[in-house]
Amino acid sequence: MTDAERTLELFRFEDPGQSIAVEVQCGEPLDGADGRHFDACVVVRSGFVHGRVGLVVSPEDLDDWERCLDALQAGERAEWPRGERTAWVEVVPEEPVDVTVRDAPSTQIAVRMPIDDPSDWVQENRLRLDRLREAVQAQAQA
User: Fold this and answer.
1) Staple partner for 11: which of 50, 61, 99, 125, CB 3.0–4.6 Å?
2) Could you read off the pLDDT of 90-137 as tens digits, one per residue?
3) Residue 40: CB partners within 8 Å, gap ≥ 6?
4) In this structure, what are the phi and psi dihedrals at residue 60, rounded to the nearest 5 degrees?
5) 40-73 as b/e, with b when 16 or more CB fall inside 10 Å?
6) Cβ(89)–Cβ(80) under 8 Å?
């Protein structure tokens, strides 16, 4: 796999039976009506359902996810990305963590998963965000 084809996770919530993650294609950014963005998808896996829904991620969305992580660390719920332009994720930081993926603009399907994740998922997702930001910045400088 070349660097142009590299896929990185923005975030992941998982337990032994299921997971929800956002995977971002870190190749050449695309130019759209709303500015530069990267193709991405929300990936849902469990013994009951497997699915992917596409979305786009902009540098501003990365800033929004950082604010969401701050809110989650403070025990507040978070929705990402903002707006109604794409599929979105809601996270409620309870025991277990409650994660809902909504494909609101397209199919109107929603999938809710309670994730019993004993790890320090906020810190792990901050590290994922940092790695993705580095890759996005490297692409911008290329």
Assistant:
1) 125
2) 999 999 999 999 998 788 899 999 999 777 999 999 999 999 999 988
3) 10, 22, 23, 24, 25, 54, 55, 56, 57
4) -65, -35
5) bbbbbbbeeeeeebebbbbeebbebbeebbebbe
6) yes
| Cβ-Cβ contacts under 8 Å for 55 (sequence gap 6 or more) | 22, 40, 41, 42, 81, 86, 87, 88
| Cα Rg of the chain (Å, integer) | 15
pTM: 0.89
Helix (H) or strand (E) holding 124: helix 121-141
Q: Are the beta carbons of 87 and 42 closer than 8 angstroms?
A: yes
